[in-house]
Amino acid sequence: MLTKLELFCGTNFRELDGYQNIGIDIVEPKNKPKNCLFFKCNLGFDKLPNLDNSIDLCQAYDGFEHTPRIVYLMVDGVIEKFTPFIFMMNEIYRVMKND
Asked: Which strands sit side by side in the sheet containing 37-40, from one edge to the other?
């Protein structure tokens, strides 16, 4: 079976027939279909669930434009530069099937 990952699914989790549907967002959807999986994740800051090389289709509606390009965080008293958008794109690359 093919696997579809929907990022930023929010409260509008979208099913796609013929796919195992997986949704990821920071807020759990209230209308999650019974046969769909959901993972809570702060996209751009947290690693995606352990889905290495398993996703056939990745979609996102109204999310990328809200992901910061650069964030400065205080870590152990030192200001560090973090790039959430690049981090998220690398995570998407990691979970997508190679072919």
From this structure: 37-40, 19-25, 2-7, 57-60
